[in-house]
Specification:
CATH topology of the largest domain: Alpha-Beta Plaits
Radius of gyration: 20 Å
Structural class: alpha+beta
Number of strands: 8
CATH class of the largest domain: Alpha Beta
Helix content: 25-40%
Number of helices: 4
Strand content: over 45%
Order of helices and strands: EHEEHEEHEEHE
CATH architecture of the largest domain: 2-Layer Sandwich
CATH superfamily of the largest domain: ACT domain
Shape: flat
Strand order of the largest sheet: 2-3-1-4
Largest sheet: 4 strands, antiparallel
Length: 172
């Protein structure tokens, strides 16, 4: 089996996921993992598909043909998973919205060799004031060689500078 990672982008309307799913099924593919969302009138998703080697070329052509329905699909062969020399850690952040929060946090994480595995952000009105409140939830892969206390200290220092609340905890 070949494993593909697909990125899908289309105008948000009913039936878009079904078209992609039908295309995969017609070419003997198996839909494995996915994350999808609607944002600003657009639908975006990322998914992993397994397909028999003999059906690979036809599936790629069929996915490209979805462009006629306004569905753009970017296709990548999945790579080999790295050995597990990291631990899973969850990060939650909340604070007044301002430009650069994601940049500053991800820069610090990259400097520490931490891999960002998932990230979900939102801006919502604060309960009392209605001011824009930035929230983020992230899944991190922290190298086993990096003490969690050291990462916590670096993140707390940055959170203090940015005036945001930040929590870091081992994932269960």
């Amino acid at each position: 089996m070949n494993h593909l990672v697909l990125t899908v982008l289309a105008a948000d309307k009913a039936g878009q996921v079904e078209r992609v799913a039908q295309c995969i099924a017609e070419h003997h593919g198996n839909w494995l993992d996915s994350r999808m969302a609607r944002m600003a009138g657009q639908f975006a998703g990322i998914l992993r598909v397994a397909v028999p080697a003999e059906a690979y070329g036809e599936l790629v052509e069929a996915l490209d043909a979805l462009q006629q329905h306004g569905i753009r699909v970017l296709i990548a062969k999945s790579g080999a998973e790295q050995g597990r020399n990291w631990r899973e850690v969850d990060l939650e952040l909340m604070g007044n919205d301002r430009p650069g929060i994601v940049r500053d946090i991800t820069r610090l994480l990259a400097e520490q060799g931490v891999n960002l595995e998932r990230l979900s952000t939102d801006v919502v009105p604060a309960p009392m004031s209605g001011e824009p409140l930035f929230t983020a939830q992230a899944g991190l892969a922290v190298p086993l060689t990096l003490p969690l206390e050291a990462l916590q200290a670096r993140l707390e220092g940055l959170a203090s500078e940015m005036m945001v609340d930040l929590q870091l905890r081992s994932a269960s």
